[in-house]
Design brief:
The chain is of the alpha+beta class. About 60% of the residues lie in helices and about 20% in strands.
């Protein structure tokens, strides 16, 4: 009883420290990525924090797998280094006695991983897609705040709006720069308003303005062709009508609906969601056998090996998911090719250590 409490307490303390560090790294990397998307116009800058939290929540299952793996690895390494394992072995315990407290330590993490992988992560993907679609559906002129320059259309167009009224439906003092290969266009207008035609296309009806075009041939860059024209009304396409409703991403499909589907993509996604939680069982057991098979190696060596194993594991999981999604493998084959192999490797390492222990009288 004292042994199990001591082991679980150390597992929890080590896992808590590792989880805090990994969360800080994850949030930092995700924040940089979201800021880059906001600057490029892919998402609304006001929603950066929301996208940050949604992205971090969807990564919790992978984070828990790495946390459990490193927690077991570091705890076992310390126990061997401080000769604590020799004391437990002398008291009649074997390496198998560590499996029970290990599973009791992993059970809460497994439940959290299942909840996030099957319910929270699909919702976060769906919510991210909804916010991004809502932002992209806004008129480009509405995204440009009055008195500020704003890029849109992937950086191919720059707006400047002096003033806007009626929730952005009417604008004044508009300046637009459009960039195309070997061509630049400047449009200035005194005023304009947003209109929608019968086909659903959104465009700006500009009034009282001028347009300047500058073009050149790629082989004759120094021979420019310029054109200027004035207009009373000028239609500027803002957003073309959608030809079809975009399909919902497979990662955003509700788990109950996913289970009822039997197409290869749904089976591959099911394998991915199950695999995120199975890693919480395979990798910590592998860490248990890895440290016990080579207890004299330093902590740095075990950390390097752990990172290589985790990268290999996640890469193989992605390969298996892709093969199942393409219909080339069955779900059972995907499980056996990755999780089965790693579980067998963990069992082999533990068996090898138990064999050595019996050989030396432990």
């Amino acid at each position: 009883m004292i042994f199990e409490q001591s082991v679980r307490r150390e597992f929890r303390q080590t896992a808590s420290s590792i989880l805090v560090v990994l969360l800080a790294v994850l949030l930092t990397v995700t924040l940089v990525r979201m800021l880059d998307r906001a600057v490029s116009g892919a998402i609304d800058p006001a929603d950066v924090l929301i996208f940050l939290l949604l992205s971090a929540a969807s990564s919790i299952p992978q984070l828990l797998v790495l946390t459990a793996f490193l927690a077991v690895l570091l705890t076992m390494t310390r126990a061997f280094r401080d000769q604590e394992m020799a004391v437990w072995f002398s008291a009649g315990l074997s390496l198998l006695d560590w499996v029970k407290p290990l599973f009791r330590f992993l059970m809460p993490m497994l439940l959290i991983s299942l909840v996030f992988a099957w319910f929270v992560a699909p919702w976060t993907v769906s919510e991210s897609e909804r916010l991004q679609a809502q932002y992209s559906e806004r008129d480009e002129s509405l995204q440009a705040a009055a008195g500020r320059f704003r890029e849109s259309a992937g950086g191919k167009r720059v707006f400047y709006v002096g003033e806007s009224t009626d929730a952005g439906q009417y604008i004044e003092d508009l300046f637009v720069i459009q960039r195309a290969p070997h061509q630049r266009t400047w449009v200035l207008a005194a005023s304009g308003k947003l209109l929608t035609d019968n086909n659903g296309n959104r465009f700006l009806d500009l009034e009282q303005g001028r347009r300047f075009d500058l073009s050149w041939h790629p082989d004759q860059a120094y021979e420019l062709q310029a054109r200027e024209m004035g207009f009373e009304h000028y239609g500027l396409l803002i957003k073309a009508a959608a030809s079809a409703t975009p399909a919902k991403p497979i990662k955003a499909i509700d788990s109950l609906d996913l289970i009822q589907r039997h197409d290869p993509r749904a089976v591959g996604e099911t394998l991915r969601r199950l695999g995120q939680s199975l890693g919480l069982m395979c990798l910590p057991l592998l860490a248990l056998g890895l440290v016990a098979s080579n207890p004299r190696s330093g902590r740095a060596f075990h950390l390097i090996v752990a990172l290589l194993i985790y990268i290999t594991y996640t890469s193989l999981v992605s390969v298996a998911e892709a093969q199942v999604s393409r219909g080339q493998w069955t779900m059972l084959s995907g499980f056996a090719a990755v999780h089965g192999v790693f579980a067998a490797l963990a069992a082999a390492l533990i068996w090898f250590r138990l064999g050595n222990g019996r050989r030396f009288g432990r």
